[in-house]
Design a protein that fits this description.
The complex is a heterodimer of chains A (203) and B (192). Chain A is an alpha+beta fold and 203 residues long. Chain A has helices at residues 17-33, 41-44, 64-88, and strands at residues 53-54, 98-106, 111-117, 125-132, 143-150, 156-161, 167-174, 181-189, 199-202. The termini of chain B are far apart. The chains are: A alpha+beta (203), B mainly alpha (192). At the A-B interface, helix 1, helix 2 and helix 3 of A face helix 2, helix 3, helix 5, helix 6 and helix 8 of B.
């Protein structure tokens, strides 16, 4: 039997008219809504997330509060969303198992979150960088470049990218050890420029 | 010197956490709040996606995209502009429509599109009602949710529900009434 009337479900005689109207409204909505869908097992399991190591480089004092907020949000995003996607996604490419997170800041609202995954068997570190607030490159052949700075060594190129719109996400891979790293920077590169251009983002 | 920052702490959840509160906490990186939103709305998103996309696999993808989008854009939610449920519904709907467009197919049920049969407004309302009801159900204590599901969608009479649960009929009716009252509270803000 499919209940059609509220009094088939509960005793309504002792209800005040106002209460009865409220429950009648809910009753009608339940009938209108119909049964909820059964979740597939893949979506019904508890969400778990791997923990990510958070790496932060020295920051200028005035940047620390904002960076803390951004870093905390980035860490949570990486751990939860990473875990969520890891646990549920069939999408390609394979999700990044985030090991380290680095934030970068620039003028005004420009910022980036660099998520570094586990290295593969030969030492390539996969990375995903989400950049926001950088202006679109001019001229059109110009681009941005990510660099790894070292305490006592050369600055190492880590990949180039272009931005289009407010937020850009790029996948990169570098073969370097981070043992002597002192920070990361993003530079604005003129077409075919061999050396780092003006820094637009830094840790 | 590196700055050591702890990961965001997970705050305890209660059934009284509103959608609005949860979205705002998710925006600050509160994983627990986001997981509660997922638990509360995954079924609703899946149901909505299934109705509009007509395919379980694509509906599953739409659920993932919806929650990834909620996580990314929680910071854009403004509580002064309205409750959380309509915002979540809009995010879900956008993700589902995007999923449909990605395959160059027309969603089975887009409220804004004209139709010769059931009006778009009616279909939009139907989707919204299901969304809110199913979301609110997830906020009920398990024993209240159970009696509602059995009373409304199992095809059993209340006497049969009582027998099924091994409870007196009066207890089942009292519990169902409490559940309806609880739902009325939860839905008051959105449905009037």
């Amino acid at each position: 039997m499919n209940p059609k009337e509220l009094h088939d479900i509960i005793d309504v005689d002792d209800l005040a008219s106002e209460d009865r109207e409220r429950l009648q409204r809910v009753h009608d909505l339940l009938l209108q809504a119909g049964p909820p869908a059964e979740l597939p097992p893949e979506l019904d399991k508890p969400v778990t997330a791997p923990e990510a190591e958070v790496i932060a480089f020295p920051l200028l004092p005035q940047r620390r509060v904002g960076a803390a907020v951004l870093l905390a949000a980035a860490a949570a995003a990486a751990t939860f969303v990473g875990g969520f996607v890891w646990g549920h996604s069939k999408a390609k490419p394979a999700p990044l198992a985030v090991e380290r997170i680095v934030t970068m800041h620039g003028a005004t609202d420009a910022a980036a979150v660099l998520k570094v995954g586990k290295p593969d068997s030969v030492g390539n570190w996969p990375m995903v960088m989400n950049v926001s607030g950088l202006p679109e490159q001019k001229p059109r052949a110009a681009y941005y470049e990510l660099w790894l700075t070292q305490k006592n060594g050369p600055t190492l190129p880590c990949g180039t990218f272009r931005v289009n719109g407010k937020t850009t996400s790029v996948r990169l891979s570098v073969p370097y050890s981070f043992k002597h790293a002192s920070g990361w920077i993003v530079t604005r590169q003129a077409p075919n420029a061999p050396e780092p251009g003006p820094t637009v983002l830094t840790t | 010197m590196a700055i050591a920052l702890p990961l965001p702490t997970m705050q305890p959840m209660t059934v009284t956490d509103s959608d609005s509160e949860l979205i705002q906490r998710a925006a600050t990186g509160d994983r627990g709040a986001f997981e509660t939103l997922y638990k509360r709305y995954a079924r609703s998103v899946f149901g909505l996606a299934l109705r509009r996309l007509g395919d379980r696999g694509r509906a599953e993808d739409a659920v993932q995209e919806t929650f990834a989008s909620i996580w990314r854009s929680a910071g854009s939610y403004r509580p002064d502009r309205g409750p959380g449920a309509p915002w979540l519904y809009a995010v879900a709907r956008n993700a589902i429509v995007d999923r449909a467009r990605a395959r160059s197919e027309t969603p089975a049920d887009i409220p804004e599109e004209a139709s010769g049969e059931a009006g778009p407004a009616d279909r939009a309302e139907q989707g919204w009602v299901s969304w809110r009801i199913h979301g609110a159900l997830e906020e009920l204590p398990e024993r209240e949710r159970e009696v509602i599901q059995l009373a409304y969608w199992s095809g059993l009479s209340q006497s049969e529900v009582a027998e099924f649960l091994g409870l007196p009929l009066g207890t089942v009716k009292t519990r169902t009434r409490a559940a309806l009252a609880h739902l009325a509270e939860l839905l008051e803000e959105d449905l009037g």
